[in-house]
Amino acid sequence: MITGGSGLPKDSLQLTAMIMAYILINGIFYLMVLSIKTDKYRSLLFVIYAVCFVITFISNLVEVRGSMIVTQEDMVQGHTPFCHMVIPMIIVPAALTRTIIFPGSMLEGFAAIGTMLVLWLGASIVLGRGWCSWACFYGGLDEGFSRIAKKPTIKNINKKWTYLPFAILLVIVLTSAATLSPTYCAWLCPFKAVTEFEEISSSTILLQTIIFFSLFIGLVIVLPILTKRRIQCGLFCPMGAFQSLTNKFNIFEVRIDPEKCAQCNLCVKTCPTFSLDEESVRSGKSRITCTKCGKCIDSCPKQAVSFHIKGTPLGVNFEAARLIFIYPAFLFLAVMGSGMITGAIYRALLLATTGSMIK
Amino acid sequence: MTRLKTIVCYVWALMAVPLVLATFMGMNFWAEKLVSDTGLKVSPWCTGGEIMSTVEHEQHKTLIYQPVFDGLIGQRRNGFFQINWTPNGNSLPRLIDEEFDFDSDGTRDFRIKLNTETNEVHLEAFGNNVVSLGEVLILGSERIARVALRKNRDDRQS
Predict the structure, then answer these.
(1) Is B52 helix (H, G, I), strand (E, B) or coil?
(2) Is the Cβ of A119 closer than 8 Å to some Cβ of chain B?
(3) Mean pLDDT for each consecutive 10-residue tract of chain B (158 residues)?
(4) What ranges do the domains of chain B cover?
């Protein structure tokens, strides 16, 4: 799975990087299974995955294109890698015109539209919004920053903000359908700052670039540090809001056993995506936005919070439900992350041996 | 009944691992199936659309695309027309001067003069449907130009 079915690499540096990634990923999984701590080890690998994604992605871009800049030529040729953030915006135009409003390739090259759609469909069936904590290659960035401070500086965040991603989702779906272009990518995506962006050739592109960097600094770095929450994922990301809808049919969920719950609300305070509130504690169910990260489960002193398989009795087979969930979830994270982690270790080894991360 | 429901739910949950394996191992197969079964294509606003005709010249060929006016429902008033010049050998001739009839009505709509050394492009419009010269792109030895078009209200209704 880690080699993508292509066999072991012949380059010794690449082989070393792959072995190191293999040991790291398997070590983290054994610790997750043995320690009964899901989020502690998931978070570690998730953050490593996101950082390695940025390193690998930028290095590959610089190697192939010479910079992080995506040109009109790249777009016309369909050389833009497809990103899952586009998915909510392509659905209406795809349904009505049978076309994908993204300058990528349907089947050819890196991150082709078809393969990314298959990955997303598979993840949505298996994980629901668990995608956001087990598969998304951006989520680990604000998760990493949200874990830097020991205590939050900003504690009280109005619950109304949790509806903002749904409002942004509605706006971008409508504007993308009207303009036949992915408006979130053009104007609001903070992760353009660490992936690729257009060459500044007009005042409009300059404004867009300023917005990307400002949102990245604000939503992915500063606010997560100040609040200890995943602000971009919980209060802004329209893909997360869209993915929440898949939680409706997903078999896995997070439940609170009212008989064990001591009403301490520690789970509410620690939930990184604002998916638990007092009402959730009373009803025993997480909100639709739950990303199944497991932080509330790890933090509950009474073990009242647990992964649960819908349709099965609550409070029975606590560990079995956790294992049945973490095997496919971790497998997704491991396979998605292994290429990025191997790539980043390889770049680091290349830097150490040749003085450059670029071949 | 409750017991049966529990068993079914556990079985469905246990199917998650084979589903993940099927997703990754069969990714290319599923992707090809998805694309062929749905007939999805990249939007002509990104690709330039379908090639309408090819004109062979001594040193190069001109690929003429269908004008793109595609809207979400029906057609838009504003669109564009893409032309691609590809060399037969290593390079394009120094000067290219061609006239185009984008709506195939038998009358020339605009003329393009392209200097492939300086990459200067000049557009001469013969009608009010032709708005301006859009992007001019250099792809190795090829050149691509997009010409912004606007349909008349009568054309749009038809």
Answers:
(1) strand
(2) yes
(3) 92 96 94 96 95 94 96 93 94 94 90 93 92 90 94 64
(4) 2-38, 44-157
DSSP secondary structure of A289-337: T-----HHHHH-TT--EEEEETTS-TTSSHHHHHHHHHHHHHHHHHHHH
Name residues 329-348 of chain A within 8 A of B (Cβ). Answer: 331-332, 335
What is the distance between the alpha carbons of residues A22 and A299, in angstroms, rounded to a whole number? 29
| Structure ipTM | 0.92
Contact B42 A78 (CB under 8 A): yes
Eight-class DSSP state of A276: -
Q: How far apart are CA A128 and CA A144, in angstroms?
A: 22
- Residue from A84, A118, A205 whose CB has the most chain B CBs within 10 Å, to mutate: A118
- A99-135 tens-digit pLDDT: 999 999 999 988 999 999 999 999 999 999 999 999 9
| Contact indicator for A269, A228 with CB cutoff of 8 Å | no
Q: Give me the residue spans of the domains in chain A.
A: 12-353
Task: Mark which residues 90-109 of A lie under 8 Å from B by CB.
Answer: 92-94, 96-107
Burial degree of A50 (CB within 10 A; 0-12, 13-18, 19+): buried
**Chain A residues with CB inside 8 Å of B14's CB?**
324
B51 in contact with chain A, both atoms CB, cutoff 8 A: no
Nearest chain B residue to A93, by CA: B72
Relative to beta strand A252-256, strand A305-309 is antiparallel
Residue A236, amino acid: F
Whole-structure pTM value: 0.94
Q: Which residues contact A23 (CB under 8 A, 6 or more apart)?
A: none
The length of chain B in residues reads: 158
* Chain A, nearest residue to B10 by Cα: A309
| Residue-wise pLDDT tens digits, A221-240 | 999 999 999 999 999 999 99
Q: Least CB-CB distance to A76: which of B19, B25, B144?
A: B144
Backbone angles phi, psi at A80, to 5 degrees: -90, 125
**The length of chain A, given as a count of residues:** 359
The two beta strands, B130-139 and A69-70, are unpaired
Give the C-alpha separation, A271 to A301, whole Å: 15
